[in-house]
Design a protein that fits this description.
The protein is α/β, with parallel strands linked by helices and 97 residues long. It has helices spanning 17-20, 44-50, 61-74, 89-95; strands spanning 5-8, 29-33, 53-57. A 3-stranded parallel sheet has the order 1-2-3, with no helix packed on it. The chain is globular. The mean pLDDT is 87.
Length: 97
Amino acid sequence: RSVDTIIDTVSDFHDIGLLISTLKPVTGTLVLLGGVLKPYELPAFGLLFSGTRVEGSLIGGCDLTQEMLEFCHANKVAPDLEIISAKEAEAALHKLH
């Protein structure tokens, strides 16, 4: 439980419970960008007792995206990423714990 914020841009239904379980208590936030047709299953009691948050937004459009990119550039905000194969996805999720 060491991640501050996850910005989830996956455009298909997936288990967000694993993502939520990596978030810091009280301050951790999962932000869902875009939407999927099937409703997500949320671990309600886990959210209530840990204080983590789930927020969401539809895509913000070009102007808001440009503003966000400029903010990131000005404040030296950069992604921490690792390119993996689909076969490595489950192991990668477990590494977040």
